[in-house]
Amino acid sequence: MGGHVSGPNKYYINHLAKIINKPRFKNRVDLSLCIMAKTDINTRDDIFLLVSTFYGKVSKDATLGPIFSKAIVNWDEHLQLLTTFWESSLFMTRKLDNKYRGNPLEAHIKVDAANNHSITEMHFGIWLNLWLQTIDELFKGEVAENAKRRARKMATFLYMSMFQARSVQ
After folding, report:
1. Is the backbone of residue 112 left (phi > 0), alpha (psi -120 to 50) or beta?
2. Which of 162, 138, 140 has the alpha carbon at shortest distance from 35?
3. In whole angstroms, how far apart are CA 153 and each of 19, 25, 28, 149?
4. Burial level of 26, CB count in 10 A (0-12/13-18/19+)?
5. Would the pLDDT of 148 be above 80?
6. Does 36 fall in a domain?
7. Parent domain of 76
């Protein structure tokens, strides 16, 4: 693999490199078993892997990619922000070093306005399908299922609220 890797894809590759370099792996079989063995989402690193892998897919998607590329100026900062968002959402009973304090609805309303109010339920459907697919590829367990439920609710809430905000503007 040659060339420069940037955006969210570099985080997935860096995470795999960390796994590969752990001394417990004596051969490729050990490594592939580790990668294939799915566990639940348990740590901030797990969430970061989920978020960065997911946004790698989003950035390559023909429909979502252009919207996200236009809206996200700093991918490093954005991935950390969304890792904190999902960590706060999924681990709300834990004592966390960082708690999310942003306003996702306001951010999505701004992105919709910047795209001439062209974001539709199709965009949210693609986003949700990529999120569910990424979780299923990487994790299994109670927290993983909770991440899917929360994403479904969030996608519905954000779209409906965004649509309602159009009538006010």
Report:
1. alpha
2. 138
3. 33, 40, 40, 6
4. exposed
5. yes
6. yes
7. 9-168
Cα torsion at 53, 59, 61, 63 (round to 10°)? 140
CATH number, domain containing residue 88: 1.10.490.10
What the block records as the tokens of 120 is 């539709």
pLDDT 10s digits, 88-140 = 999 987 777 788 888 999 999 999 999 999 999 999 999 999 999 999 999 99
Tally the domains of the chain: 1
DSSP states of 141-160? SHHHHHHHHHHHHHHHHHHH
Q: Is the whole model's pTM more than 0.70, yes or no?
A: yes
In a domain, 60, yes or no: yes
Tokens 């490594």, located at residue: 31
DSSP lists the bridge partners of residue 112 as none
Sign of the dihedral through C-alpha 76, 80, 81, 86: positive
Note whether residue 1 is domain-resident: no
| Strand partners of residue 139 | 39
